[in-house]
Amino acid sequence: MITISDLTKRYGKTAVVDDFNLSIAEGESVALWGPNGAGKTTVVRCLLGLVSYEGTITVNGADARSSGKTVRSQMGYVPQELSFYDDMRVVDLLDYSAALRRIGPDRVDEVTETVGLTPHTSKKVRELSGGLKQRLGIASALLPDPPILLLDEPTSNLDARARDQAIGILEGLRHEGRTLVVTSHHIEEVGMLVDRVVAMEEGRITVECDPTDLAEQLGLRAWLHLILENGSAAKALDVLQVGGFEAKRNSRGVLVEVSAQGKGEAIAALQHAGITIEDLEVWR
Amino acid sequence: MTASPAEVQVTVSERPELRLIAAVAKKEIADAVRSKWFWLWAGAFAVLAAILASSALPGSQVAGFGSFGRTAASLVALAQIIIPLMGLTLGAYSLAGQRETGALRFLLSHPISRTEAFWGTYIGLATALFATVFGGFGVAGVIAAAQGGGADAASFVRIAILSWLLAIAMLGIGLLISTFTASGSSAIGTSIFVWLGLVFLGDLGVMGTAVATKMPVSALFISAVFNPVEAFRLAALTAFDGSLDVLGPAGQYAVDSFGESLDVLLIAVVAVWVVAPVSVAWWRFSKGGDV
Amino acid sequence: MTRVGVLVAVVAVVMTLVVVATATASASTQTPLQPLIDAAAPGSTLVLEAGEYEGGVTVDKPLTITSTGGAIVDGHDVNSVFTITAPDVTIDNLTIRNSGDSLDREDSGVTSVDVPRVTVSNNVLENVLFGIFLRTAPDSLVVGNSVGSKDVETARKGDGIRLWECEGTVVDNNTVNGGRDLVFWFTDRIVVTNNTVTDGRYGLHFMYSDDARIEGNNLSDNSVGAFLMYSRRTHLAGNIMANNNGPSGYGIGLKDMDDVMIEHNRFIANRVGVYFDNSPWSVDSKGWIENNLFAYNRTGMLFQPSVSRNEISMNTFIDNTEQVGTTGSGNFQGNDWSVDGVGNYWSDFAGYDADSDGIGDIAYYGQDLYNSITDKHPELVFFQETPAAKAISLAAQMFPVLRPKPIFQDDNPLVERPVLTPLSTSASGTSARELVAVSFLMLAVGVVAVAFPSRRRRTANPTEVGP
């Protein structure tokens, strides 16, 4: 469905996307994952024709450079944050987006209902919370009922509850059979959404794999900060070190290094030893 | 949502579509009407024009002579200052400001071409300027008439139309500035600098050069008239005075050498400024640079 | 008039009527006028019926030629239409048209040769080279005529009214459009009142004509309103000079004029309101310019720098681009800008009047940087009224170091604008209505242009959303 060949984007001499190749099948859901500046947002912008690039992008056989309108008509784009059109009402913004796609107001109402914005249609964009703005972005992208959705950091600016709701909406969209391209640097948030993770660093693909294999592939480690019952820290250190974990004291608790997918093992080991964990944090 | 993705295939033409241009234009107009800048400009222009119109001597007091010629002359001077500032800043801020907030990316993520987005923006802003200029002149005209200024209504309309042409010429230059600058604030800064150049420094430069080099009046006229603001002023003066010979030797030179075609020449200069900068801006914007 | 005279006149009228009746009966041809004049008794009145008459006639006896209306005398584009060679001739209430076009022969609508007391009244003169040209005709009357001109290039035009040695003549209530001048040579004690002269070269042109009284005339849209030369004791009052914008473009030009009195006139939107060229000329003469309005002229008053001995007071100067200017940069002095402690009103006077006596407490200085530059570099007049020109003047006001030497000072400027008596106007009412209509239309079009596209497509009411 989407074929990206030899994509390179330079700003001056620096290549932010460097010889990038990727094919995405119809109905497939792909995450572009990497730290800030890895080039994942730039790939999305290339898909939308927002920036000039070297290489070729085709969507359903149409060239993104020469047939940009055709390509974009199949894609809905959810920007990272709707920080514009502040003075527009929600319904006016959606009407405008619909007018740009020759879509009638009935569909606007339908989409508003789908993402749960119906009670907020008269509000101005600036009055919306981050979560509602995100839903507005999704609503706008869904107007044409597009086969492809591009989501730029869909969860990054949301609080936990809004993030859950957004992920819920996106899961629904995935199950409708749409092709999803999601950029994120929180892989565990979008991991459950996608069939494939494409990890990027400095404009290049480092790893391409199933989301569950990602941590393994990358050898990802995290630090688990465990707050323990008073007086049990020394015992916990012993237990962990015996269990083969890298662990050290940290004020009221211990820090233990774990693999990104294996946090439960350390906790299970402590519980097995009868140590009560009062609280925990993940440090990266 | 019941439609499966495969069912939806909107037919899209890669060629420019009027309805898309119209949709963007409508949005720009609605934005303008909502924005405080629009009302500030329109209000300032209308109030200043009204003050000028009402401070002129009542026509009946000076007997048979509508003091309107004078009102019109002051209006032209006012238009010379305000309208370029209005057009330049509006144009410069539009694309640059939208680029800064991400609105432009959002717009262009739709199945709309750069050409459609550009001309839609231009038409919308040009319409907003039309409302500002005609609203301001309308207010001034009503007040001038209430003062008993017997005016030639036709030349009044001509001056209003010329003012609008100046406004959209400046809008074009503003949009061109917009394609060069990354942020809204630097676009505004650049446009104010260009405004100073067109409205003050250009004329002052020609004056200084004329005094320093004793340039012939022909050279003075030609070098002045390249400036769109000057071409507008001269065209507006011809519109209500009928002749430029009131402007001393250089004006006399213009009348003598160009005669009947002087009007055509001046309008042509304004027209070139209306068309050229915006076309270059369009070319720069539509060739697909990063937004 | 004797009883016999009356009888003769009546007979002449009856005969005329008979002749006219037969002439109109023979259809399209024009009635020859000369035989009717030849047949008329001296001192009688010849009344022409409506119809066309052949002009090119000579009136060689005292005679009144008039009509009951609608009589047209046609000169067939040859010579003058009427030539008067006897005193006490009256040409009245006729349409006189189609003189020849020879400037050498001075072809005219009505001309007279060395005879006194000619009356030319209430005629309409069309397509004539000169309109009314009286030579050595003292004590004549030129009243109520409407004079047009030939549609030829300016250099080949004749004068609407031209008087040569016609002292004591009254020129009143004429309307002259499109000719060269209304010119008076060697014509002392002439009275020129209530005339309207438009689209000509010089509205009035005086040469060596002393003691003239010029009142209530409207001299507009000419190259020059009135050019007065080599004359003495001319009195101009209550005239309007507007839009005289020719290459010289003076409301009034004064050349070697002694003891001229200019008062209660209005100079509006001329290139120059009054131009002083060597006036007054004689060392023992003066000039008085009082109670006039100078508004919206390029230059209110323009002086040759050597001009002196004028008394200029109680005038109103409103928004002239240059209120007072000089040609070149000579030493300009010796004119009085206030008389008996009363000066003039200047719209750009920025002083104050703490003692509320109506007189400003500081002097008004004629010093504008842009104007002082244009006095030396007239080509820069091109930029008058531009923001750049205003910036130059403003800069000089803010920074004294940039201020030019004042060209004059009015020590007692008036702080209140003198009241102007409104003059009745006929035309401005309709054009003001037109302007109101057009302005409202513009306003409406402007509002609709943005209101229509920006209207909300629908109200965002959740209850409208279907299930």
Structural overview:
The complex is a heterotrimer of chains A (284), B (291) and C (467). Chain A is α/β, with parallel strands linked by helices. Chain A folds into 2 domains: 2-218, 3-Layer(aba) Sandwich (Rossmann fold), CATH 3.40.50; 221-283, Alpha-Beta Plaits, CATH 3.30.70.120. Chain A has helices spanning 40-47, 68-73, 90-99, 105-114, 130-142, 160-175, 187-190, 214-218, 233-242, 263-272, and strands spanning 2-11, 14-24, 29-33, 54-59, 62-63, 75-78, 148-152, 179-184, 196-201, 204-209, 221-228, 246-250, 253-259, 277-283. In chain A, helix 4 (105-114) crosses helix 5 and helix 5 (130-142) runs parallel beside helix 6. Chain A is globular and about 65 Å long. Chain B is built from 11 helices and no strands. The two termini of chain B are 33 Å apart. Chain B has helices at 18-34, 36-55, 68-101, 103-108, 114-146, 153-180, 184-213, 217-225, 228-241, 248-258, 261-286. Chain B has one domain (17-53, 66-286). Chain C has one domain (49-410): Pectate Lyase C-like (3 Solenoid). At the B-C interface, helix 1, helix 3, helix 5, helix 6 and helix 7 of B face helix 4 and helix 5 of C.
Cα Rg of chain A: 22 Å
Note poorly predicted spans of chain C: 17-27, 425-429, 462-467
Beta-strand content of chain C: 25-35%
Structural class of chain A: alpha/beta
Pair with the most extensive interface? Answer: B-C, 79 and 68 residues
Lateral arrangement of strands in the main beta sheet of chain C: 1-3-6-9-12-15-18-21-24-27-30-33-36-38
- How are the strands of the largest sheet of chain A arranged? 6-7-8-3-9-10
Task: Please identify the oligomeric state.
Answer: heterotrimer
What is the CATH architecture term of the largest domain in chain A? Answer: 3-Layer(aba) Sandwich
SSE order of chain A in H/E notation?
A: EEEHEEHEHHHEHEHEEHEHEEHE
Number of beta-strand segments of chain C: 40
Task: Quickly list its features.
heterotrimer; A: 284 residues; alpha/beta; Rossmann fold; Alpha-Beta Plaits; 32% helix; B: 291 residues; mainly alpha; 78% helix
